[in-house]
Amino acid sequence: MRPQGDYRNGDGREEDSEGEESSALEDELSLYDPDAPARALSALNALRKSRQHYDAVLVAGGTEVAAHRAVLAAASPYLLEALSPAPVTTSPAPASAPVYRVEDVDADALRELVEYAYTGRVRVKDTLSARRLYRAAWRLRVESVRAHLADRLLKRLAPADCLEVRSLPDLSPHHLAQLDAYIAQHFEAVCETGAMAALPVVRIELLREGPIQGVTTAGGEDAPHAIADAALTWLRSHAPEYDLEELCSRTHLLYVAERGSLRDCGELPATRGDAPELQEYRREAAQRAKRSRDAGPASAARPLPGLELGARCARPACAVLAARAASGGSTRALLAVRGRLAAARVSWRDVAAGGATGTRGALASDTEPDSAERRAHLATGRCAHGIAVLDGRLVVCGGYDRARVLRTAEQYDPSTNTWSALPDMRCARARFPAAVLNHTVYAVGGSDGHTELDSVGALQNGSWQAKAKLPLALSYAGAAVDPEGENLYIIGGWAGGVNLKRVLKYSASEDKWTEAPPLNAGRSQCSGVWWEGSLWALGGCDAWHCLSSTETLTINGGQSWSPGPPLPTARRSVGGCVWGSRLISAGGSDGAASLRRTDWLETRDGTWKAGPNMRKARAGVGLAVVGGVVYAVGGFDGKEFLSCVECLYSPDGEWTSLCVPPANIRSIANHSEKKENGVHSD
């Protein structure tokens, strides 16, 4: 008996006649037409395209592709398994054709792969389409297409897209070796293209009182690579669960001891006079250690082999692909972390060796330990709320807590670090934008938890007043104010199950809404910002996807929206604001998880640059600037509705919950000496 997995056509009679000699009569009467299978597939292809006699519908990104289950199963092992269970739903035409949703596959790529199943041909217009088609072929396990595209893409490498190719899944070892050699050879050009701006960033700051053992930091070609290797070696041994998002969630502050070993400053003993940021760093390290202990051994990460300082990590699980010296004596590197790419920024800070007594720490200040003031929390955790800046204060209103839609409003005074209650809004409201126009806070549209709203509330002279209603009820819109024209714009949104292209303009002097030029793409959950004389719509989502695209409209002379630089990652519920000359985006959700990342744009024709990650992942975050400081307020981290506040004092700094900017690093010697000698100061 043959195994059931042996695929054969017919009823078995051909097997019984194998090896038998045919007669002359049989040869004369029989027909062999090698083109018949191709004609049959061609006819089936024509039938499905005309929506006749198909028996399955694949759906990806809102696009339906009719096909025959048998053809799909023969072409794709993935679809062979996926089409075996009952369908998720039924198609309206014809009613008997089941519908199967294909996740994480580009709609155009799916269409091309189905066409390939019938014709043996795929059409690829450009390298971007080739990468999308590669991912779809990998996902559906159409190996012939995947292998073909891998070979062709590696023959057309360019600095601008080699990182995109390196990120493709399931590349063979020889392809990876070829890519890594190309990246290392052209790393200078890769950095200049801005291709690394879209990558997550691992930030490491090394404090040293002498040279690292085996690493030359002044001159020498191998110095940048060796520095990055040294820092990555430490991460391999110490990072919890070796999770890339965790690695990128904070700056790792390391101390280079006299003998060249690396120590986490969070492990150093407390010293009287430690600066607030070192206290905070040590406190968070203790909290992470406690969470790891509480989680138990079941969640412990699989240990990685230890490496001596300066040794290379084994490729491809963890490797420094390329590195170069950057400004200020720092090192910029490209890492491969368990198949994913990340940028690394390793900076140096020389500190003076401590005296015998060691009375001061590296981050010394005149404050006592644990005396640093932290940003006060909101009265309640909230998400999808409105945030605005009025007279030097943050105004936060509405949103969701875990149980209900809120009417409450409160304001934060940075000078006193206090929140105080404001009058409740006239109705509960969430999923709405807030903005300030003529010293009045406007809360526009949104949802009361049951339906979209067309009402507009204005906080004026200490009370909420009703203003002219919107032309339609909507939620999830963005908002921006033209300070010169004194107009408020409502951008996109959600209404009646549709993502809107509509843009509305409000004139405070007339208390009237009018139409403005519509967006090119319908989007909701986007962020609206006024920057450099133009309206900006950042990210959001359409019917099926989170968006990375941005659009911009120049008010003076612009009659239509034009594409802006795309965000490094697709996201919705993202925060946006203007900080000095920079356009800032922070937080949001990629559809699967809340995000920590911060990015900024310095010129309207430039590319987004990665900034420091927030301490908390925040979707539906309130983002605003007061007194030259960026504040992130509330939001949803994937588990909790947040009441905490964090801020960013400078582009080169880190997000913090402390009320004072980080102090300068002065000396860290003696911390390590005291701990190793068993000495702890008060």
From TrEMBL:
Record-linked SUPFAM superfamilies: Kelch motif, POZ domain
Pathway where it operates: Protein modification; protein ubiquitination
GO molecular function, one term: actin binding
Domain BTB residues, every copy: 54-126
Gene3D superfamilies (alphabetical): Kelch-type beta propeller (2.120.10.80), Potassium Channel Kv1.1, Chain A (3.30.710.10)
Keywords: Actin-binding, Kelch repeat, Repeat, Ubl conjugation pathway
SMART domains: BTB, Kelch
Location of the region described as Disordered in the Swiss-Prot/TrEMBL record: 1-28, 266-303
Transmembrane intervals: none
InterPro entries, alphabetized: BTB-kelch_protein, BTB/POZ_dom, Kelch-typ_b-propeller, Kelch_1, SKP1/BTB/POZ_sf
Superkingdom of origin organism: Eukaryota
GO BP of this protein: protein ubiquitination
Record field: compositional bias (Acidic residues): 13-28
Keyword Repeat carried by entry: yes
PANTHER family to which the protein is assigned, alphabetical: KELCH PROTEIN (PTHR24412), RING CANAL KELCH PROTEIN (PTHR24412:SF466)
Purpose: Probable substrate-specific adapter of an E3 ubiquitin-protein ligase complex which mediates the ubiquitination and subsequent proteasomal degradation of target proteins. May have a role in synapse differentiation and growth.
Name the UniProt record assigns to this protein: Kelch-like protein diablo
Protein's organism: Bombyx mandarina (Wild silk moth)
Organism lineage: Eukaryota, Metazoa, Ecdysozoa, Arthropoda, Hexapoda
